[in-house]
Amino acid sequence: MQSTVTINGLDVALPSDPRVSLLDFLREHLHLTGTKKGCDQGACGACTVLVDGEKRILSCLALAVQYQGRAITSVEGLAEQGALHPLQQAFIEHDGFQCGYCTPGQICSAVGMAAELRRGVPSYVTGDLASDTIEFSNDEVRERMSGNLCRCGAYNGIVAAVTEVNAGQPSQRAQEEA
After folding, report:
1. Is the pLDDT of residue 7 over 70?
2. To the nearest 5 percent, what fractions of the chain are helix, strand and coil?
3. Within its chain, how far is the Cα of 58 from the centroid?
4. Up-side HSE of residue 154: CA atoms within 13 Å toward CB?
């Protein structure tokens, strides 16, 4: 029986070679070239994808076989029914990219970051760790997105796009308290 992983909603067979990285599996085996190979060392974030819809990982540091039976979402899987994901649209509207190379990783990371905030996961700059809510501030966005590098320096547009889409969304802890 062949092992499978769900990629962007479709079940696919995992590679027979257990040494294939998730990044190479996406790009070379499945021809999903939206996920970029930047440093291939986990330092730039260009290869960021989502596991089970909300946990962000660096696909260059992950083996494809590690995700047997799990769901992986790449930037190609974010759009629904031909419509861009709200973050994809916001990146366009706020000029959150220049060359665009880091953009897929930035967008996947921002989706994962928003899920962390909703779950009430604090960051280094979170002021009150005992609070029911985490303030969605530019400092929080910058800190949480710091693992994704943009060599063009489009950070202001990236922060504006992420903030527009996610500001005002309460954390899960705050919703449970209400």
Report:
1. yes
2. 40, 15, 50
3. 9
4. 23
User: What class is the 4-77 domain?
Assistant: alpha beta
Cβ-Cβ contacts under 8 Å for 97 (sequence gap 6 or more): 91, 103, 106, 150, 152, 154, 157, 158
At residue 171 the predicted structure's pLDDT band, cuts being 50, 70 and 90, is: low
User: Would you tell me which CATH number, out of the four given (3.30.420.40, 1.10.1060.10, 1.10.1040.10, 1.10.150.120), belongs to the domain 86-177?
Assistant: 1.10.150.120
In sign, the C-alpha dihedral spanning 54, 74, 96, 142 is positive
pTM of the shown model: 0.91
Give the ranges where 55-167 is alpha helix by DSSP (H).
Answer: 86-93, 103-119, 138-144, 155-166
pLDDT of residue 177: 55
